[in-house]
Amino acid sequence: MSELGKLEDLPLSYRQELSALNLVPLWPSLRSVLPPKVPTRQTQATYWSYETLRPLLLQAGDLTPMEKAERRVLVLANPGHGLENMKASAAIYLGMQLLLPGEWAPSHRHTPNAVRMIVEGEGAYTTVDGEKCEMERGDLILTPTGLWHEHGHDGTTPVVWLDVLDLPVVFYLETSYAIEGQRQTIKPGHSDQQNVRSGIAPTRMFERNSKAYPMLRYPWKDTKSALITLAQDDPSQECVQVTYINPETGDDVQNILGFYALMLRPGQVLRLPARSPAQVFHVVEGQVEAQILNSTFAMREADTCCAPGYEAVTLKNLSAHQPSFVFIADESPLHRKLGVYENRG
Ligand SMILES: [Fe+2]
Questions:
Q1: What is the pLDDT of residues 244-254, one digit of tens each?
Q2: DSSP secondary structure, 323-338, as one string
């Protein structure tokens, strides 16, 4: 690929004339916006140890009352994007959120989509669109774009969860905003129990559920049991994985980010292909080593790491006797919609 002219090759007076007219020459920047074969990625392989961040998150509980935080979160920021930009990848935001007994995080709704993966504690709940969703370790709870949500805690110990949002991309599009609301009235309803059990769907007078987000809570006990059954039914199958889907449409649960759960058999080493989306790995149960580019992360329960797109990732179950379970978030739905999704094997 031939070298192109640089900005400083141009006479200063010419550059100034262009700038004054809001014009920019393309050729000095052409190679950086269209690099050969592999995109420039700011996302770095980054690891966050839960054991290390937990005391700092609890300290935030002492330092900042809920009224002053609204959402008490430490953002898991990728240094490649600049910490102040609060991105794990180009499209993914990650935050560890703390709710103390008796606290309430006020109702709001916003354009970015969020999910939360519960990390520890009992007795907390998220009310989403009037539905009270209990929060237990490993559960996935959706707060999709535009739906009211708030968090309450009737338990006795701190509750922590991992927030995963598509905030960076929604913010980049200049479409990110929030609306504050009143405390929601809880309506009876358990979308997690109405959906997907034995392949049936709620139907009223022959009409199926028309809600865009018919299921809001994905209990870990059901996900884990599906993974164990998958592994037992086909012991020769290398990859034991499920996708979190909308039970009415079969599509990804949200429009921008995709969510999966993966089981690694005892001692298993699994190579995930190099695909265009960046991805996040969070250990729900067990111990997993993640190899991403030149980094190797020995991850324990509740640890999180992220990988840039276009790179293969190797996951190894560090236990020779127990399966390990990993929650994965990626940018696949967005890449597929944009037509830029690639699996390079
Ligand atoms: Fe929110």
A1: 999 999 999 99
A2: -EEEEEEESHHHHHHH
